[in-house]
Design brief:
This protein is of the alpha+beta class. It has one helix and five strands, in the order βββββα.
Length: about 80
């Protein structure tokens, strides 16, 4: 479950968060878009008690990053 998203990463809810600094490959979709987005990320924070972690994008295809950027920009306008 996604808690939040920014142009630079994701906050996710999980019962098995990984340690900070861990490399994580993520695949997700955004409302209104039909294809999955992919990113290589690192765990920025992890909270086992609350069941979540933050992922900072490290490598994202330029087209996928454009989709993320446009989605975030649209959320700010609404």
């Amino acid at each position: 479950v996604t808690l939040n998203i920014s142009k630079g990463g994701l906050g996710i809810r999980t019962i098995n968060p990984v340690d900070p600094g861990s490399k994580v490959e993520v695949r997700f979709c955004l409302p209104g878009y039909t294809s999955d987005l992919k990113a290589t990320s690192r765990t920025a924070w992890s909270d086992k008690q609350r069941g979540g972690m933050g992922l900072q994008f490290e490598q994202v295809d330029s087209l996928d990053q454009s989709v993320i950027d446009n989605f975030i920009d649209q959320q700010v306008l609404n």
